[in-house]
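Sequence in, structure out. First:
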Amino acid sequence: MTVRSIRNKAHWAAYATVVTLAVGVFVAAWSARQDRLWGDMQEAAHEAAREVGLSTRSARNSVFMLQGVANGLFQQQGLALSKEHQAALAERLDLPGTTVLLPITRAAHHTARASANNHSDSPAFSMAGVKPAPDSEAGLDKGREIEIALSLGPALIQAKTTQSAAAAVYYLSGQGFHLIYPPASDDLQLFTPDMLARDPYRDGLVERNPGRTPVWSASYDDPKGNGLISTLAIPIDDAEGRYRAIAAMDFQLDSLSQYVRRPALGIATAFILDDRDRVIAHPTMVGGASDKAPTLQQVAQRAGAGDWSALRTAPANNRQELAADWALVYDIESTPWRYAIVVDRAQLRWAALRTMPLEAGALAALLLLLGYAEKRRREALVSLRRKAAEDVLQAAPAPVAVLRQADLSIMMANAALLRLFGDDGTTDAASARRSAHEQLHDLIKSLSSQEQIEAGRVSEMCLHRDDSTPFWVLVRCVPLVHEDEPGWLCSLTEVTALKQAQDQLETLATTDPLTGALNRRAIAARGGVELKRVGRTAASFSVLLLDIDLFKRVNDEHGHPAGDRVLQAVSRACQGALRELDVFGRWGGEEFVALLPDTDHDGAVAAAERLRVAIEALSVEDDVGRPIRPTVSVGVAVVLPAGDSLEALLSRADTALYVAKAAGRNRVCVAPAGNAPAELVQAPAAQAAVIQAASAASMSADKDSGVSVGA
């Protein structure tokens, strides 16, 4: 047993070791694949952030170029307008290569836009407010700045041409005019004083931007239909260092969406976040489809994630853990923006697992192989155990069977059981097995209903062999598990011979051996039972006490064997004349007792008379062939209403019997209910004549032979 236990433990230890190693190797490879996939996404995000930086750097270079050109023109002190030029500028401000928009009159604006001088590849000039006199100092200063602004036309065109993400490039002066490229044919191109109050202009003021560097404005929806934009503005100074204007570029933010829609980021959420908690580039923000930038929290809710607020201040280039997500941020050079990537770790694990079909298949194949090997080992072990159990069962001398609990069918039975049910080697074993199955099925059900099976009690049962021969067995059933199924182990011990001996002993103890009737002890027991029933139900009950008349003379004159035959004949006649429920027995010597349940006075008298007549009709021969005609005297007692005992009943019946004897024998007498005299039942006249004639004949014969019975 110890060796087997050690062997089983070693087997399971080896099995667990192999499984643990295989799973450990797979998990390690899976973890490495996740790290590799995250590394690939990190590299892709870093490259995308770098390309965004290059795009914004190019935009900054363009506005730096505009600033430099404008500052250079302001440094040229000799640049001045001739009076003729000033007059022409004041008259129309219509210079070759420049589309002039005069918002003073809307009609003039549309006329100018429809003129032959309207070139779509030329900047548009727009001015508002009262024009100062051309020859005044203010007029000369404004005219000089207009001339400088008009000279920036080629630079504006170049800046726009080189920047595909630029919606518009313009020079916005604080003196009430601007130069913008590309031009438009609607009123949105016109200069209005409120332009100087907008964020792009105010962010470019020296007070807000003392370093005179390019400044990105908050994102907003372009009224000209270019979608979500951010304005990049830089201040322009004159030769004296006075702030004069800004050079600006409207940058289309949806151009950045291409950098957050890379194939390598298919399982991640990538976006660009500004310093105002707005997501200015997102895979869903394409082609101006969004009129405003969503907040970081709104994007997190769309992704079904938790709180991403830590991305605003998280250190750049470091992986962050956001609940169930991993995040990475990169600062975009010279902008207040951050490139962020967030990946759900569960999705990352599944994505890594999808890239490991060979490894997963190998692990599954190994586990299946181990499972199959374990299954075969268990089947072999079960087979060995079953074979051993069958060998033990077959070698057992006692009949044993194993039944399945589900349907009570026989799973295993030894040869001793089949022999018990009739398989002697010459008959059909299948028939014996079928008989055993049916009877054991019924036996188990009966034991279950009696709640004897759980306790494993031994029960005595009568079964039948295949040829319907009954036999008695002691049955004990206990639960067990056989082949991983619950069942019953039933052992049977045949006790037919013991049962027969027991029945014989019981018969000897309760039966008179000479007459076959119940003996005095059995009569007393049955009488006590009946009287208890009478006490419970108040039913009627009567007792007959019979005594064979002159029986001693029979023994003396005919011999004891003849007397025994008379006793047997009287017993048979009485049992034949009584009902099945009546109890009849030999009380002692030549006295017999009949217990009559549910029988009142009249019924008892009728029964007694019936017995008397039946016995009177008997004729028994002695050893030499002489006839013996016995008669009986009968005493009848009926149970009293107030109750009675068997001894009292028999005593009153005996008194009535004595009266019947004294009255001439061969008659019935009923015991009184109280102090009244005994009731002697007289035979009918015809019957009395017959009896008298028979008695006379008997006495005559007795005179000849010396025998007298029944007189």
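Second:
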Amino acid sequence: MKYILVTGGVISGLGKGVIASSLGALLKSCGLSVTSIKIDPYLNIDAGTFSPYEHGEVFVLDDGGEVDLDLGNYERFLDVMLCRNNNITTGKIYQDVVEKERRGDYLGKTVQVVPHITNAVQEWVEKVAMEPLHDNSVADVCIIELGGTIGDIESMPFVEAFRQFQFRVCRENFCVVHVSLIPMPGSTGEQKSKPTQNSVRELRGLGLSPDFIFCRGNVPIQDHVKTKVSMFCHVSPDKVISVHNCKSLYRIPPLIAEQNVVQLLKDRLGLGSLSQPFQTKSALKIWYELAERQENVRNEVHIGLVGKYVQMEDAYISVVKALTHAALHCNLKLVIQWVDAEDLEIMKADQDPVHYHDAWKKLCGCSGVLVPGGFGSRGTEGMILAINYARKKNIPFLGVCLGLQLAVVEYSRNILNLEDANSSEFKSDTENPVVIEMPEHNPGHLGGTMRLGKRTTVFKSEKSSIYKLYGCKEYIQERHRHRYEINPAYVKQLEKYGMKFVGHDVDGERMEIMQLEEHPFFVGVQFHPEFLTRPHKPSPPYLGLILAASGKLTNYISRGCRMSPSNSLGNLSSFKELSV
């Protein structure tokens, strides 16, 4: 097993996850199997109880693990399925060690950070790295991202663990990639290497010497700056890699590959005997195509994302990726109108008329409406108003999790004339609880008590467009994260008035997919399809929304759910063969 540790210096948010994912994608193009581990040095057991304003989206895995959003980057870039153990937190490690101490596993010894915590980290990494992937193969390379910034007190035990780990697995099997910032103050216009020098000095003082330094900046790193970084950071000049800001995220793998990183990694880790030759053009073609399409498409599709966390775009990062992948698949430029659900509510017209009218102006200018997941009552009445608008005006609509539940509430109020219809999450004493808490939910704790992970949905109708978008499959498997569901007692009444539940769980008790009859595209799903989107394989519900919003859904379905040759990835007319 070969290990690549990715660390960060100077500031957080440099894009370690994207760089780690890009390295993995390039190694996969050589025929290597790659797995990833993300280390978050906080005391939480997992990300499940985080506020979206703290760390952005909570990403959910097949096994129900609630993890950091960076694991979503890994899955999308590497096209792999990870598990909850691929996300390590300080809380998990300490919980593991304390449980062992309570059982007497340490035979009465004093339990300390060194060696017990550091040993637990190393054992966890080795165990996860050797676990079979979704295709039952064992990875050749494990890429480990250490969250936070070198020097943070929270990450010190992990840095020490990897200082020991490099000798445990032998130096030739362990490589350190350090991602650092090269700022360029506006007053001088000169790129400064001193912060990177200080960061590397601190890393080396802790016992880890970087093999590669990835220099982040707004513009390409100048040659004399790379030379200075090489000189003062004890790294050869060819291993100082420039990663500047790009128009498209898909430019990052080619940008790294152009600097011969694949061959340098092969030489450093002895990967030559394990891998195929890196065929530059063929390996990078899909990334060039995606980047060219994202940067050069002209026809726009405007989607109104009506949510309660719109001030923090990372709270909906997988939703944005799913919309982006679907738009690129249709050769369209995605324009998201971020609409704060609270600003749509009637009371806002009196309290803050400017925001109220701006919100409705943005929504009315969209050709599609999306209401994503969320928790709590704040903003839900605004979401219901947006759903009502989309239904009455025949605007394509997609509701995800909470979006499905609120679509049922809106329909119950305005079509079934159940004026007090609501979710028991928001009004526990409502006479018409069309959305109820799941019977098995344990309210004693918040963490890990929801219906989580991959579940099977069985289609009940072969006439629905969503069935066709999924390839006319008898059943599908998608990831869930919810503790409330549609009340089965109201299903017959809703279906009588045209709201069809075309997908159920395997027992037929839970409503998974809703589609409204006599509407161009009005779909709600209880699961989160955005968690399984891929750049080359967009999520069907999101693809349906984009197609309907651009007036292409009918033709797409009539062609057997295939894009026209001119729109397909791999046949991009503007793509030019680029040599690197």
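Remark: Residues 113-129 form the longest helix (17 residues).
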